[in-house]
Amino acid sequence: MPGAALPLLNNRFRIDVEAPDPPQTRANIAVASIRGLHSSASAAPTLSSNIFAWLRRPRRPTALRLELRRAQGSDRYFYDWHAANLGTGVDLRTVTITQLDDHGEEAVNRWQLAECWVCEWHGPSFDAIDVDVAYETLILCYGYVHWCARS
Q1: Which residues of the chain have pLDDT under 50?
Q2: What is the domain count for the chain?
């Protein structure tokens, strides 16, 4: 199609990962798709309940999940992050998703995912007949999401 933009160069979002160890921090990670951004609560307090007890409730045992899909290249960033959490390791990071305007310049919305880790990593599928891009799929687990105010 003449004049059609390449889909991977035409995205209107950005992923940034902030790690406690500065060399592990990454900005503007290119991904093809993001699925599953959500927040949930088990039960809300009522006026007759003790709101302070509800606020001190134990954290939910299951984490929220977000799927990222990106073209497979030689960058092992997400795989290495996943490998760091296998066994007894704990490598929690903050992931920021920024939605950009139509020109891809200004932030329209921003969400921060706290207590994030790569809980699943799926390598690309290979098929000699298919000429599609080889993708890796990542499942990020996170404790909670914060929809940041526009600045």
Answers
A1: 1-8, 60
A2: 1
